[in-house]
Every structure is written in C-alpha cells, then in structure tokens.
Known about the structure:
The complex is a heterodimer of chains A (about 250) and B (about 300).
Chain A: H1 3-19, H2 21-43, H3 55-86, H4 89-94, H5 99-128, H6 136-160, H7 164-180, H8 193-199, H9 203-216, H10 223-247
Helix pairs in contact in A: 1-2, 1-5, 2-3, 2-5, 3-5, 3-6, 3-7, 3-9, 5-6, 6-9, 6-10, 9-10
Chain B: E1 5-13, E2 19-28, E3 33-37, H1 44-52, E4 59-64, E5 67-68, H2 73-78, E6 80-83, H3 95-105, H4 112-121, H5 137-149, E7 155-159, H6 167-182, E8 186-191, H7 194-200, E9 203-208, E10 211-217, H8 218-225, E11 227-234, E12 251-252, E13 258-264, H9 272-281, E14 286-293, H10 296-306
Parallel strand pairs in B: 3-8, 3-9, 6-7, 7-8
Antiparallel strand pairs in B: 1-2, 1-4, 4-5, 9-10, 11-13, 11-14, 12-13
Protein name (chain A): Transport permease protein
GO molecular function (chain A): ABC-type transporter activity
Family (chain A): Belongs to the ABC-2 integral membrane protein family.
Amino acid sequence: MNLYAIKAIYLFEMHRTWRTIMQSVISPVISTSLYFVVFGSAIGGRIPEINGVSYGAFIVPGLIMLSLLTQSISNASFGIYFPKFVGTIYELLSAPVSYVEIVIAYVGAAASKSIILGLIILATAALFVPLRIEHPFMMLLFLVLTAVTFSLFGFIIGIWADGFEKLQLVPLMIITPLTFLGGSFYAVDMLPPFWQTVTLFNPVVYLISGFRWSFYGLSDVHIGTSLAMTAVFLIACMLVLRWIFRTGYRLKS
Amino acid sequence: MSSAISVSSLYKTYSTGFEALKNINLEIRHGEIFALLGPNGAGKTTLISTICGIVNPTSGTILADGHDIIKEYRAARTKIGLVPQELTTDAFETVWNTVSFSRGLFGKPAKPAHIEKILKELSLWDKKDSKLMTLSGGMKRRVMIAKALSHEPEILFLDEPTAGVDVELRRDMWNVVRALRASGVTIILTTHYIEEAQQMADRIGVISHGEIILVEEKDELMRSLGKKQLRLHLQGKRETVPEALSKYGLELSPDGAELIYTYDTQKERTGITALLKDLDKAEVRFNDIQTKESSLEEIFVSLVRERK
Lengths: 253, 308
C-alpha cells in the first residue's frame, strides 16, 4: 500500500476545498437555509404534523441527503475530471500507485467533504427546527455509506465525462429529479397509490427513508431494505470502477 | 548488470489503427545521457509515455532497472521521473505544495531538505510560495523538472525539455542535467535541437515513423561529422573511377558526373594536394570543385528521408 500517495492525494483534494470554501461549503449551507425558510417556516407552518413530527423537522433528513448526494457527486467527479482536463493526470498515471489507492484517496476526500457538509447542514437545521435523533449510530452509518457510494458514482462520472457539459448533465438531469421525487419534502404515503409504486423504483427513496428513520423512527420502507439498496448501489459502483481500471477506459490509450 | 531501461519488441497501435511504435528494441545504459532525436510525430513521446505507464503497450516488454513496468509497476515507476513536454500544472497550487505532492505520490516520506535543495538548484526558491498560475512559462518548466526530481529518481525522462525556453534557462537546465548525471542518474531526453544532443548526449538514437533507425555513440557520430567531402564535377560522365586513383578511395556519384573524395579534417594531411596532382596525371578534367561538411543534421535528415 502506497500510504504516502493516498495521503498526498487526500490532502491535495482537501486543500482544494479550503481554497474553494465559498463554493464547496458556504453555498450549500445558504441554499439549505433557504429551503428551511421557504418550506419549513413559510409553507411548513400551514402543513399539519406528519406522524407526530413537524413538517420543518420532517424535511431535515431529506435536505441533508439532497446536499450529500449532489455534493458527493460533484466533489468526486470534479476531483478526477480536472486533472484529466488540464493534463496533470500524467503524473497520477506514471506514479507507483494502484487503482485502489487512487480510488481510496479521491473518493475518501470527496466523501469526507460531503460528510462534513452534511453535519454542518444538520447543525444549521438545529437553529431553525427542534431536532431529535433516535438512532445516532445509524444516522452516521447512513451518512457515511451514502457519501461513499455517491462519491464513487461521481468518480465514475468524472472519468466518463469528456467535457464540462457531461460533468453537469448527470447530476442535473438524473440526480436532482430523483432526490426531489425521492421523498425529501413528503412522505411516500402522501402520494396517490400509482405514484407510490413508481416511487419504489427510485433508489433515492430508500436512502432518504432510511436516513429519516434514524432521526424519527419513521420510514416509508423497511430500514433493512434501505440498507440493502444502499449496499447494492455501492457494490455496483465498485464493479463499474473495477472494469474502468482494468480496461483503462478514458484514462489510457 | 541489467540496463537502466530495456525495451524489447515493443509495438503500439492506437485504437484509430495508427501504428505509433513498430518493433522498438532499445537498451539504455545506467548513468548515460541518451538523446532521442526524431521529427514531429515520429513516436518519441509515445515511446516515453509507454515506458512511464501513461500509454498501454500493444505488445512487447519494457524493463526499468530490471523491473517489468506492468507486472512490477511499483518498483519500476518509483525509479522513474518524467518531465512531460506539455506544461500541465495545477494553476492554484503553490510551487512548494505541488513539488511536495509529487514526492508523496511517488511513495516517499516528506523530506523538506530535499525539496529545498531542488528548488534552489532550479532557481525556484524565492518562488516557493507563489501560485503556479503566476509563473512564466520558463518557471513552470522548472517546476515540472522539480516535480520529476522530487522523489529522487534513478532514471529521468525529459521530453523536449528546452522547447520554448530561453537561453539562460537552457543553460541552467543543462547544468542541472550534468549534475544529475554526475550523481549517477540515467537521463533520456528527446529534442529537436541536434546541437543540444551533440553537446550533452553520450549516445544518440534516431526514431522515425515509429521505428528506431539508428543508435550510436555520439563520439562515433562526431567522427563521421569531422569528415568533409570534396566533390569534383567532371567534364563528361564516367562509368568507373580511374585505376590510378584507387588509393584515394574515391566514389563516383550515381549519375557518373562527380567524383567524391572523403577526407578527415582532423588529420594533419588531408591528401588533397596529392589527389589533385594525381588527377592531373590521370588526365581527369573537371569544371568545378566543391567541399562540403556533413553535419549530424544532414545525417539525420537523410536517414529520415530514406525511410519515407
């Protein structure tokens, strides 16, 4: 294991965050706060409690997940796309590092950032609404699993993308709709029956449901199913990455 | 003792079907400076990139200090430093950080004293806290070299190190290269400047259309460089060189219109006076005389042209 290399890449990536602190941390915090003001206070005040949880508190787990997903993807995809774009990837490819080490470093850094961000948003939320976390350990587990899984997914997108357009396309066209329709702002049983069935094909539903369960003990689907779906997605990303590195896809000619 | 770099039967065909490298066989000795010459698109960069692991070889084997670059990539790559042709840097990083990053990436523990030494040698010390985007092209080139040297490689690849670099930097760079060689580092460089290869290299290789067409000691090449040709334009064409002049080793040009005498300018006697007397005796008439120096450039150009 080339630990020095993992450390070098990890610190390099984390350093990039501090350099772009406005974009990486402050802007998601501001946008989440706006959600709280609009949905939590303004509109939420007119919505009745959902299973004994006020609407403002109900949307907290969903909002954290929303940021966690989009930030994990954009951090990781940008982290690997940028060296490809400016050409500094030559150094990575010629260095004595294995692909596993590259993934650990890049995905680790991207996941760290989004976990920190998730916790910051959680703290911000606590300023607006009364929070309770029934299963703190499960909450952290979901936070870490989701951050790692979607950082892996972002890493794949970063390798696949051959232009800035593609880099933004997947988060914009797929992830944002999935999260908005994944129960961030509502409980699945609030939907008409037909859409309840459709929703079950949305992987994000399982993440948000599981995450919300760790807060309030209520969920749309069973917690075991949530964990299993997360694991399935995690493994799928790992398999795709293994294929990418074996073939050198988009990295080496 | 194994070679610093040993390339055997290396082929590279890109997915477009372009054959960039054809049956490359090359041994680079420990501690030498090897200059790889060739026109644009000859395969210089592909060859270097393949050895350094940036391009996958189609077939063939490459050993770096006895280690297979694919099966034992860790051992092989740790020994190699690469300065690529293009100036690709992380614009927002500082000089110090980017050079330290490279050392870590190559699996070496931090050693600020070494980084300091490199930066000082490359006159980068006062720029160590500058962001890369604020540096001039020449300074960036120095940073690229510093990055390649950060992990104390035993084999250094310099791909067109002096392209677009001013005279002063070129001189600095060659001083660094000489110092590295003195400390035992093997150096492989590609260049367009034949003069540069002439000054620096121990051996010279010429690559053209993906094939190595010549590998020779520089001194050997210089010896043939030291030769001059005397061309006598004859009155009327001849089929053969006159018998009486056989001791001069004359050649007849392919069209029979010229006699060519090759002589060594380094020698005390070039034999020209004797030749002219004997030509007169043999009643060979000519209407023009021309002398010509063959340069490495010419050898190079004719070698490359032959292959086309």
